[in-house]
Please model this.
Amino acid sequence: MVLSVSRLSKAYGGVQAVRDVSFGVAAGEMVAIIGPNGAGKTTCFNMVNGQLAPDSGEVRLGDASLAGLPPHRISRLGVGRTFQITATFGSMSVRENVQTALLSHRRRNYAVWGRAGSSCGDEAEALLERVGIRSQADRQCAVLAYGDLKRVELAIALASRPRLLLMDEPTAGMAPDERGALMALAASLARGDHIGILFTEHDMDVVFGFADRVIVMHLGEIIASGSPDQVRADARVREVYLGDA
Model:
């Protein structure tokens, strides 16, 4: 397992947002966490990423413990992340955004503004080629279509050479045809580079079309886990979330 989560719990006052949650993600595997609003999936996701500290439980990346570490330290250990709302520098070119991520990963932040134009250029171009937007390298991110921005963000996440990639609603705001293309790209990268991918998603076509395994949360607990077919057929999952979907 690239990621091992054991008995993770988090409460806000008297509300138990996550209770005794355990799961893992293997190298090259795509795992989806789904559930109705308030199920606890975002809280769980943010504890893995370091945005929230768990009340109890363990999060491990390989042999390294992540629980309680801040996001920048977790990133340096090999965890990348993309966000529901894309996070890029709009006034900078596509290439410069990726160069900035490469420099940051190498702890060369001092060079970002003064030397980014001549630093890591070939590596940035290679990453842009991998995500299919090398032809847009010189364009400002502010003028890109939303689907292309998602690809830029993926290239930025790959700049840290992650062992685990967290994708928070990766297809939110995208057109249907763009969603499938982005997730097919993520799946190809996961299997080609042996990256474990954990993602949250509301589009069930994306979940059941691309996840190797699906974890379903409800009221802070895991109520089902298995292959897409197993989860789709689970009576409790259909009752609390999927309905007749």
Remarks:
- The chain has a mean pLDDT of 87.
